[in-house]
Amino acid sequence: PGQKILNKNNENQQLEPHLYPRLPHLPIFPSIDNNETLIQNTLLHNKPTIAGIAASIYQFLNALHVSNQKFATELLEDESNKKKKKKKNANDLRAAYVTQVQQHLLPLEKAYRGRPLFPIRHDDSIFVSIAAFREHLLADTLASAYSSATHPDKLFCGVVVQNCFDNTKCIGGVKVVGKDKMGRDKMQKIDGISDRNGVEEFCHNSTFAQYCNNGQVRVIYIQDIDALGPAAARYYSSKLWGGETYYVQVDSHLHFANGWDELYIADLKLAKAYPKAILSTYPPGFVNFRQEPPYTSGTRLCRCRIRAEEGFVPRVEMEGRSRENETRPTQMAFMGAGFFFASAEFLVDVPFDPFLPWLFMGEEVALSVRAWTHGWTIYAPRKNLIGHQYRPMSMGTPHYQDSVSRLLTHPGMFGRAENQVLDRVKHLLGYPDLHNDNHEDNSDPYNKFLEMDLYGLGTERSLKDYLTFAEIDIDKRTCGPMKWCSDGELE
What we know:
Elements: H1 2-15, H2 35-43, H3 50-80, H4 90-104, H5 106-111, E1 126-133, H6 138-148, E2 155-163, E3 173-179, E4 185-190, H7 198-203, H8 209-213, E5 217-223, H9 230-238, E6 246-250, E7 254-256, H10 260-270, E8 277-280, E9 303-305, E10 315-317, E11 330-332, E12 339-343, H11 346-349, H12 363-373, E13 377-380, E14 386-388, H13 400-407, H14 413-428, H15 452-455, H16 463-470, E15 472-473, E16 478-479, H17 483-486
Parallel strand pairs: 1-2, 1-6, 2-5, 8-13
Antiparallel strand pairs: 3-4, 6-12, 7-14, 8-12, 9-10, 11-13, 15-16
C-alpha cells in the first residue's frame, strides 16, 4: 500500500507540478524550504508553484510587519515631541504600505497579467476562498463545506487565518457561552488567550485530516495586528488558487446545504451568460437556513444606499427573492463579497486588487463594477444553499479595525487612511471631484490610483451603462429602486 501511495503522489506531481512542494497547512508561519528559488521560478515562469506564491506573500507580510511597527513607533515619537513640524500622517502610512506592495507583490502580478497562474482544470473542481479574522467558527465552516459536498475530493480551500497567536498580547477574543432566545450564539470577551486555530482543529479531526494531508487545504497565517481588512485578506486567499475549475468566495462563519457543490454548479451553468456568469447573494442566517430541501428561495441584491457617514460610497443591500417558478437564474447589478461562485477565468479578467488595505465599505461595489464592465453578468442563485452567522455589534465578535487601532494609536489615523482607499473606489465609479496630480505615475507610492490598468474597469461594457443598469446617480448621490432586479425580469 505504501508503494501505491508513493506512485500516486509521483503521478500527481508529474501532472500538476505547481502543487509541489506542498504548502504546509501547519505549523503556523511554516518554513518554506528553498523559498527564494521557488519565488524566482514562479516569477520567471520556469516552474510556478503555490508554495512559491505563498513565499512571496510571506515575504511581503514580514516586510509589512516591520514597516507597520516602525510607523507606529514614529507616531508615538511624534506625540511625545510637540515641537516636531513634520509629523507622520495617513498619506505616509499608505505610501509605506504601497512601497511593500510594489516590491513584493507587483512583480508576481505583472508576470501573470492576462493569463492564469496555472492551467485551469475542467473537472468541476472547486476552489473556496475563505478570509478569517479571529474566527471561532472556522473549523465548523470547513467541516460543513466538506461533509456536505457531493464531491469533497474535488473541493480545495484557500484559508487566510488572521489570529492573535501570542497569549501575552491577545485582547478582545471571544468564546461561546450559550444561546440567546433567537438561537444565536452568546459571546463572552476574553483577554490573554490566543485565538482558536480553526485550520488546526479541522485538520486534527480524523474525519477530515485526509483533505489537509492531500493538500486540499492551503493556508496563509497572519498576526491579527497586521490584518488590513477583508479586501486585503481576499487578495491573499485568491493567490492560493491552484487551477481549479470554479472560484468561490465565502465568509468564515457558514453552514452548507447537502450537495451544495453540485447544485451551485448546475445553477451557474443554467445562467444565460455562462461561462461569464457569477452567482452571488447574501445568504440567510443560521436560524432560517435549511440543510435539506425544500430550500428557501435565493435572496437578491437589488438595492444600494449612499450615505455621507460611509464616504458616499454605495452600500449593497438585500432586496427581493428568486421566484419559485424560475427555470434559470436572473440578473442583478451587485455582487456580495461574502458569497460568489464563478468560473475560475474570473481571476484572469478581474484580478484582486492589492491596493485596498483597510477597506470595508466599498469592496462589493468595486468588485461589481469591475466584473460587469469586463463582461461578467451577475445572477442571484435560485435557492439558498448556505447559511451565514450575522453578527450585530452587540454580539461582540472581534473586528480587524480594533487590531489596527491598537497599532495606530493616533486618533483618527485609521479613518483617514481608509478614506485614501475609498477615493480609489470612488474613482472606479466616476466620481467627478477627485484630483491627483500624479494620477499617471505608477512609481509614486503616494498616488491613490496606482496600476488602474491592472485593477480598473473593463472595456466590454461602459461605466455609464453600468451606472444606468444599477440605477446609481453619482452626481445626486442616490440609488434607484431597481424594480427590474427585485422582480427578476432579466435572464
